[in-house]
Each structure stands twice: as C-alpha cells, then as structure tokens.
Predict the 3D structure of the following.
Amino acid sequence: MEIDPADLFIQKVKQHLTGKLREEAMTLAERFEERGAQREKMIIASRLLAKNFKPIFVAKVTELSLSLIEELEEGVQLGIKEERTAIALRLLATGKDSVFIAKITGLSLPQIEELKKEDVILT
C-alpha cells in the first residue's frame, strides 16, 4: 500500500517538529490541501461547462463563485473553438469538402472559407 505524499509530510511534521515551526508547517500543509481542493473543483467545473451545464448550476455544485465560473466558461468556449478550428484545418489538409467539415466541426461555411484563406496565407 502506497502512502500519500501529503499524509507522509504531515506525519513527518508531527514527528520531527515542535512549537512555532510545527504550527507553520501544518498551516502550509493546510494551504496546499486547500489549493488541491480548489484545483479539483475548477477541473470539475470545466468539465461541466464543456458539457453545457449552466454556470449558475456549476457554481452551486462546485461552491465556486459565479464570476469565476463565468471566466472558466469563457476559457472552455475558447478551447472548444480552437479545437474545432484545428480539426477543420486537418480536414482541409486531407481535401475534405467544406460542407462535410461544417457538419463535423459545427463551424459555419463562412468560417471554413476564412480558414481556407488563412491556411493559404500561412503555408
């Protein structure tokens, strides 16, 4: 059975430190634990937003602020758009037609035509 590094740290602090130094080390450990929990909540929120859950619901479930969820949503949407664009560019490179690419990526035909122009400029 493998020991969790955080648990090992706390165990060593309790064994080897005393007084003020022990108190400060435990406070540091608590902060690391809080950051980990916060990071986990943000990962969950991002996944829910990517599945099109409403920000207010995500905020309630994760106990993160609505303003933070709205910022995350902007990032998630940007990431989705970038991924769709990357897929469209790969499909264009294989010679697929614009209508097919639009169906696969959800991009509009004008967006795909713009990508064709940009791709010509970049190559």
Q: What stands out?
A: The chain has two domains: 1-64, 81-123. Residues 19-50 form the longest helix (32 residues).
